[in-house]
Specification:
The complex is a heterodimer of chains A (361) and B (315). Chain A is of the alpha/beta class. Helix content of chain A is 55%, strand content 11%. In chain A, strand 7, helix 14 and strand 8 form a beta-alpha-beta unit. In chain A, helix 7 runs antiparallel to helix 8 and helix 11 packs across helix 12. The termini of chain A are far apart. The chains are: A alpha/beta (361), B alpha/beta (315).
């Protein structure tokens, strides 16, 4: 091949650090697409099928923005449900748009080990497998660091004494992580960020309101898609927890033969079988949240998301039978921050009224 | 044998797999009640019961269950999930349809069988045999009845395919249109039937994607067009398009809003089929018959013009 390969990939929350690392380590030049903005989704929506789920539109827009910055190789992963079919259609769309890019779809149904094998086959066939395995493992460690640090920030954000302190630490952490080249450095950066978080002054009430966020993987992990609903919850004084992050998802996908039955059992009696992707998990986690004394659940999904719409039938019944507050949010290409703020405020007010035991008959 | 009266909703799996299942249960002596063809009432009940973003066929399914629920002891809602790799898998909406039905009708008794080779189910043979035993038949009676029902439903399927083939062969120069769509849409009185009738009224010969001889072969053949396509019904449709694209003068892709698999497959078909006119019709709750008629008329005009032009070239 004469031309240097310049790889791009779709943006998803803070995980670009790990994705970039994999590309760089494999010897390619990596073009990190800009963060998701209004322009990304406008681009994506313009060239996407009308009622495809919205992560398709976001990731297409993100790939286009990477290609505009000079990438000539687009990498898209594949997962469950419609996600397994994104790559083929996005490839056809980019081709029809006139972009001359090599489109690589990493197969493996979300199973990291198979994705890695496919990466070797399609991107760096000349590199020995142990080297690639080491790169992927290091990227996975980066993902774990990201998940631990952002998870802490998510939980504590509502209570920081000095506004902006935690997000500053998170941003610094991602910059430092991006500069690491060895596993030891990853561990150091992670430690430093956690220390900084531990030193930050928090004013946590004795019993804060606690909300669990569940739903489809892309919209829970890319904050732009939900108009940063987790930050909005924090702004309303709520402690936010979210069981699904990228490394957890990867672990589940490797162990799906035990994980899925566990989730189906956890979703009983509302579900008897697996309803696809994270749908079963959304139901099981909601039931667990009720048992664990959470004050409410926020359910996020792309408009028309098949498994999560099925989950909603169960979640609506759970909400009714357990008198448990669930905020249902459908993310599409037109989400507006002001509308989201109002909905979250109303939800927070309702949780507080409920907590105070005030009931309007 | 059980003295339950079992309700069969005329929706979703009923249209493609129903002939087999009904023949099987009837052979076992189970008394069945099939809901009537979809009408406005069923449709409106379904729309009011479903989550807004549910696809139209699932909404209609819930309407059918509602129409049955006071007349029967239990309603049969099968689940089909992941099939053999050569067959593909069902849309995840259909993976969840039994549980969705249970949650929308918590008081209703449902019975089900689960065909899935990855997530907890079993093969169709085992699943139906188990269902037969649950309804009080012996294992051997169930196996005999199933073999019998398979033979009968295969025979009627192949008869429908030959009839379609004959009609195509004897159409006397009038243009032919392939309608690609899920059987549960094409067979539905409110969704597919009006479209098929409008096409026939335009004087074109209509071939249906689900009335070709070897649907299993089509499921494999579709992979030449789209290697990553995993949904079984979509594979049949794409396979049918590959099989028929040179024999027809136009292709109508009929889908419903907001169908997940079709949203992608229809896009790919439109982008990759350039030699035959393709018309994608999206049915939703608000489909107005006037608009539908205009679209079909103008599409048929294109098809007919194209037919005469190519005939001219041939001369």
């Amino acid at each position: 091949m004469s031309e240097q390969r310049r790889i791009t990939f779709p943006h998803m929350g803070p995980y670009w650090v790990g994705f970039k690392h994999i590309g760089v380590e494999s010897g390619a030049e990596v073009i990190v697409p800009p963060p998701i903005t209004r322009r990304t989704i406008e681009l994506g929506a313009r060239y996407s099928p009308e009622f495809v789920c919205v992560p398709f539109k976001y990731t297409l827009g993100s790939l286009i923005e990477g290609i505009e910055r000079g990438a000539n190789v687009a990498i898209q992963a594949c997962g469950g449900c419609r996600f397994s079919y994104y790559a083929e259609v996005q490839d056809a769309i980019l081709r029809d748009m006139g972009y001359e890019v090599e489109f690589i779809s990493l197969q493996g149904g979300g199973n990291l080990l198979e994705v890695m094998m496919d990466f070797k086959r399609k991107v760096t066939p000349e590199r020995p497998l142990p080297l690639i395995a080491r790169t992927f493992l290091r990227a996975f460690r980066m993902g774990e660091a990201i998940d631990e640090v952002t998870g802490r920030v998510r939980r504590d954000l509502a209570f920081e004494a000095e506004p902006g302190a935690l997000k500053r630490i998170e941003a610094q952490f991602l910059r430092d992580l991006d500069a690491t080249t060895t596993p030891r450095q990853v561990a150091e950066v992670r430690r430093a960020a956690l220390d900084a978080l531990n030193r930050t002054e928090l004013r946590r009430p004795e019993r804060p309101l606690r909300v669990l966020v569940v739903g489809e993987l892309y919209v829970v992990m890319e904050p732009y898609t939900s108009s940063r609903i987790e930050d909005e919850l924090s702004a309303n004084g709520i402690e936010v927890h979210r069981p699904l992050d990228l490394t957890t998802l990867i672990r589940h996908s490797i162990a799906y033969r035990t994980h899925v039955p566990k989730m189906v059992a956890g979703a009983a009696p509302y579900l008897t079988t697996h309803i696809g992707a994270e749908g079963t998990e959304s139901v099981a986690r909601t039931l667990a949240a009720i048992r664990d004394g959470f004050d409410g659940v926020v359910h996020l999904k792309p408009f028309g998301c098949m498994p999560e719409v099925s989950a909603m039938a169960a979640l609506q019944r759970i909400s009714r039978e357990h008198t448990f507050p669930i905020l249902f949010v459908s993310c599409d290409a037109q989400s507006a921050e002001a509308g989201m703020r109002t909905r979250v405020e109303a939800f927070a007010d309702m949780l507080r009224i409920r907590e105070a035991g005030v009931l309007y008959a | 044998m059980t003295d339950l009266t079992v309700g069969i909703p005329r929706s979703l799996f009923f249209h493609a797999e129903g002939p087999l299942v009904c023949a099987f249960l009837e052979a076992l002596g189970v008394s069945l009640v099939v809901s009537p063809p979809t009408d406005r009432r069923i449709f409106e009940r379904g729309v009011s019961l479903a989550v807004d973003e549910t696809c139209l066929p699932v909404k209609i399914h819930l309407g059918h269950v509602d129409a049955l629920k006071d007349r029967v002891d239990a309603v049969l809602v099968p689940r089909y999930g992941v099939l053999k790799p050569s067959e593909g898998e069902m849309c995840v909406k259909l993976w969840g349809i039994h549980d969705v039905t249970r949650n929308v009708f918590p008081e209703l008794r449902t019975i089900s069988y689960d065909v899935d080779l990855v997530y907890g189910g079993e093969s169709e043979t085992r699943a139906l045999t188990r269902l037969g035993r649950e309804l009080g038949a012996s294992g051997s009676a169930a196996r005999t009845a199933l073999a019998r029902a398979r033979k009968d439903s295969a025979a009627s399927r192949s008869e429908a395919a030959s009839r379609q083939e004959r009609e195509l062969a004897e159409r006397n120069g009038s243009p032919a249109v392939l309608v690609a769509g899920h059987t549960y849409i094409l067979d539905d009185e409110l969704m597919g039937a009006p479209v098929l009738r409008l096409l026939q009224r335009q004087g074109v010969a209509v071939a249906r994607s689900d009335r070709l001889p070897d649907l299993h072969g089509l499921r494999k053949r579709a992979l030449d067009f789209s290697p990553g396509l995993k949904w079984a019904y979509n594979r049949e449709q794409v396979g049918a398009i590959m099989e028929m694209r040179e024999r027809v003068d136009g292709i109508v892709v009929l889908l419903s809003f907001p169908c997940g698999p079709d949203s992608l497959v229809a896009e790919l078909v439109q982008r990759k089929i350039r030699d035959v006119p393709v018309c994608v019709i999206v049915l939703d709750e608000l489909t107005a018959s006037g608009g539908l008629q205009t679209r079909i008329e103008s599409f048929c005009d294109i098809v007919k013009m194209r037919g005469t032009r190519s005939a001219g070239v041939l001369q």
